[in-house]
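[Automated response] Your request has been received and processed.

Submitted sequence:
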Amino acid sequence: WPWEVMAAAAARLEYRNAFILAPMVRIGTLPSRLLNLRYGADIVYSEELIDHKLVACQRVENAALESVDFVAPDGKVVFRTCAEEKKRVVLQMGTCSPTRALAVARLVEHDVAGIDINMGCPKDFSIKGGMGAALLKQPDTAAAIIQTLADNIKTVPITCKIRLFPTFPETLAFAQRMVAAGAAAIAVHARLTAQRPREPVTPEQLEFVRGLAAQLPVPVIANGFSLDLKTHADLLAARTASGCTSLMVARAAQWNPSIFRPAGLLPIDEVAREYLALAARWDNEFGNTKFCLLQLLHDSLDSTRGEAVLAAKDFPEMFEIMGTTYTPPPAAPASPPAKRVCVRDDGVVEASVPYDPRLHPGIINPKTALGAVCRARAAPIPAYEAFERPIDRRFLAVCTALDGRYASTVPQPSKKYAEQAAAAACLAALGIVRADGTIDEVALRVQTVRSE
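Generated structure:
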């Protein structure tokens, strides 16, 4: 079995006898993960992060926060982690491509304890993109993803999270295929793809899970039992009933992370205030913080306080409603601006300028502005060559204008946008486009005055 080759990596993160925070969209951000760890979770998963988004990110060491950030070209933090969770956080990836999955894994492998492939999400977005539960119907692709990662990533274990098939033999065959490809552990959501979380796990489905645990040579992690989980004692009972070595908890932890405490649940107000303190410390995005807080307060959203939290416009207001004081996160030290324009070895002038159509609501955009500059100088009209990056299916372009060639380093979602970004790069070199991609209209007028 190739899983034996993974033993050294798997030993770094112990999947046996563990209580685990499940991957949950918008819940599995850094403050929530840390809170669950502090309350007793052994392992925490990130929310599902899509390979297309991650592969375009840059790894940034945030000295002010003491975090490691994976930052998208638009400046948004896609994934933030820190030393406290490094040995116990698993990044869950949504992917249908072994190539992109490997690129992402190489980007994050030294900052996480494990990498998991989502093979169970039933949402339309995932399935239409060939990800999540769609991989259950594409075992060759699923196995290729696992094997590519297992063969090339030796620093951390590779795992996957699946759902049940209609029959046990189908379920077992798929799981065995993933183990043979190199999966160091299998998490199984004890429902079919079409079932929703509100539907209870049936006795037959429980037997499917128990069968996997008995027949697979790697740890099996049971998931899908939150309807029955109210206390820490329930976690112990569910793990025993599943026959699995470990239990993964989703909604029960979303509503009260202190369910992981052997000493018992804490009052939800105390949990909420601890969560808010972590959200402030790690500069968590306001919208995400508010969403997670509302999950903690889910039983009292129709109360006066619940309605006030729903209406809160900023951190100080939200903290005051919850009876605590907002302390801003550490400020980043001032640093000189990065050089925006440089010349590549092939002579192309590069500029790290974005293109956002919302910044150009009128008829003036980078291409029309550059065209005006060329006309004013009696120069040939600009020519554009756009191409798709295979790694993430985003686009870059080169603009030939004014006796030079120009390109933006910021990948775009379409060829048209890539051409606009390339034009913006040329304008940046001329001092017409600012660092944020907006056009300096005064500078443009100066450059388009025709010579007499």
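Summary generated for your ticket: The radius of gyration is 25 Å. The chain is about 35% helix and 15% strand.
If you did not submit this request, please reply to this message.
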